[in-house]
Design goal:
NAD(P)/FAD-dependent oxidoreductase, FAD/NAD-bd_sf, 2 domains, FAD-bind_Monooxygenase_sf, eight-stranded mixed β-sheet, FAD/NAD(P)-binding domain, disordered C terminus, about 500 residues, five-stranded parallel β-sheet, disordered N terminus
């Protein structure tokens, strides 16, 4: 097999967030410890991924912190039941450095493109070309902010920023602010900025269900006990896991479970918002779970304050300093904050990876992302996605999902190396059968309710985001590498060269 010697690695990992860190650590633990075995390419200057990028006020996890950590690096020192962004980032960074990843991470290196040349991956970066036998795309779906194409937005004379690119240099005190979008990020930062600003105009295209968040500071005594009695820590984590799986059961069986949970949301809204007109604006007209469930103990309450106006409409355009709603309502503001989400199902990395036929991953998908077990895609040999299509649950920890995928990836890579395989590629018929199975299982779940349109739904109207079974089923199935699912290319044997005896 012909290879470029300069800059060649067994595995190139794109991204140094939680999934890239997990992949690199487990590959190294499996024996890929040589200087040219594993390299992580990270466009930023530190670890953390989405927890590095999202620094908005109030940023925190919406999965209990006992579940939101690496299984191989448990942490008993979370300050709250739901960890905050600074401590999650510090934890992720610490795990990476404790496992020696600094020596294999190239910070400030962005991947511009990668293509399979028939024998290896050629990776173009801002610092030149590398080649790799295997490619692990761990950039994640919460990587690139989605900026709405609003007429006049580019000409707005004030400050405009996305929640994932928070402008910490702008002083919000006494300012008039418009917030566009009411998803998971806005639910966290709106209560934080509401007390600072003079006026807050919230443009809400669609109301969201909000449930109370069972969150509180963790007492020092509890942390002390958990550090010294690991069994107690594991027991509490098991209880949290069972509670989240209960939410998962409601997703999969809307009647009666999700309908019962929706009653909790209705009661919470009534208790938090006494004004009937405002409550009507904030009441969704779709089944709970059809969109991402939001958790907050302060969001709904902040919307009742006198300096807040909820515009129950999308935004039509921006005229000078005025934001104009689709219903004709207006707001003159000094700053616009976009809580408009991310390119999740149209993730940018899909435009940068070219498979065996020269087409990009985005061209293969044509608007509907699909991957076998969310990890491997037909036509892309020796390439793996972490946190890929059809693995979202709405209640599970991304750490759990990523670790399951990494287990499969490590098994695949080490098996290929041990067996002398040049390449492995998922069989197209295996991928198709799996996608059909997932789509059939999603029917009747809350994820596919017809009463709303969420980011679970792709450009072709198909749910390409959600996993239709339990977290336990995900771990058992996704973590397993089955060579029979793949087309295997073996490294050709080198024919011996016949030597001729030369006589003089």
């Amino acid at each position: 097999m012909t290879r470029s010697n300069a800059g060649h690695h067994e595995v190139v990992v794109i991204g140094a967030g939680i999934s890239g860190i997990a992949a690199a650590i487990k590959l190294r633990e499996a024996g890929l410890t040589g200087t040219d075995d594993v390299v992580i390419l990270e466009k930023a200057e530190t670890y953390g991924g989405t927890w590095r990028a999202n620094t908005y006020p109030g940023c925190a996890c919406d999965v209990p912190s006992g579940l939101y950590s690496f299984s191989f690096a448990p942490n008993s020192d979370w300050s709250r039941v739901y960890g905050t962004q600074p401590e999650i980032l510090a934890y992720v960074d610490r795990v990476a450095r404790d496992h020696g990843l600094e020596e294999v991470t190239r910070f400030g290196v962005e991947v511009l493109g990668a293509s399979w040349d028939g024998e290896q991956w050629r990776v173009e970066t801002t610092h030149g070309e590398l080649t790799a036998r295997f490619l692990v795309a761990a950039a994640g779906p919460w990587n690139e902010p989605k900026i709405p194409d609003l007429p006049g937005l580019a000409d707005f004379p004030g400050e405009v920023w996305h929640s994932a690119r928070w402008n910490h240099d702008f002083d919000l005190d006494g300012k008039r602010v418009a917030v566009i979008g009411t998803g998971a990020s806005a639910v966290q930062f709106v209560p934080e900025i509401q007390e600072q600003v003079a006026d807050l105009h919230l443009f809400q295209r669609t109301a969201h269900w909000v449930l109370p968040k069972v969150d509180h500071p963790v007492p020092a005594a509890e942390k002390w006990v958990k550090r010294r009695i690991p069994l107690l820590d594991r027991t509490l984590t098991a209880v949290e896991y069972a509670a989240m799986e209960g939410v998962g059961t409601a997703f999969h069986h809307p009647r009666p479970f999700m309908h019962a949970l929706q009653k909790v949301g209705e009661a919470y809204l009534r208790a938090a918002v006494r004004d009937k007109a405002l409550r009507e604006k904030l009441t969704p007209d779709y089944l709970l779970g059809c969109k991402r469930i939001l958790f907050s103990n302060s969001y709904l309450q902040s919307l009742t304050r006198p300096n807040v106006e909820v515009h129950a409409t999308g935004v039509a355009r921006v005229e000078g300093s005025t934001v104009v709603g689709a219903d004709g309502s207006t707001a003159e503001v000094d700053a616009i904050i976009l809580g408009t989400g991310f390119h999740i199902l149209d993730m940018p990395v899909a435009d940068r990876l070219r498979g065996a036929d020269g087409r990009t991953l985005a061209e293969h998908w044509a608007g509907s992302p699909e991957a076998y077990l969310g990890t491997v895609v037909a036509g892309f040999p020796n390439a793996f996605l972490v946190l890929g299509p059809s693995l979202g649950t709405g209640h599970s920890s991304a750490f759990t999902i990523a670790e399951a995928q990494v287990a499969m990836i490590v098994d695949a890579v080490t098996t290929a190396r041990g067996q002398g395989w040049a390449a492995l590629a998922i069989r197209p018929e295996t991928q198709t059968a799996y996608v059909d199975e997932v789509q059939a299982a999603l029917a009747g779940t809350a994820y596919t309710a017809t009463s709303c349109h969420s980011y679970y739904i792709d450009a072709n109207g198909r749910n390409s985001f959600s996993w239709p079974w339990s977290t336990g089923a995900l771990v058992r199935r996704v973590s397993r590498f089955n060579p029979a699912d793949f087309e295997i290319t073996r490294i050709p044997l080198v024919e011996p060269v016949e030597t001729l005896e030369v006589t003089s």
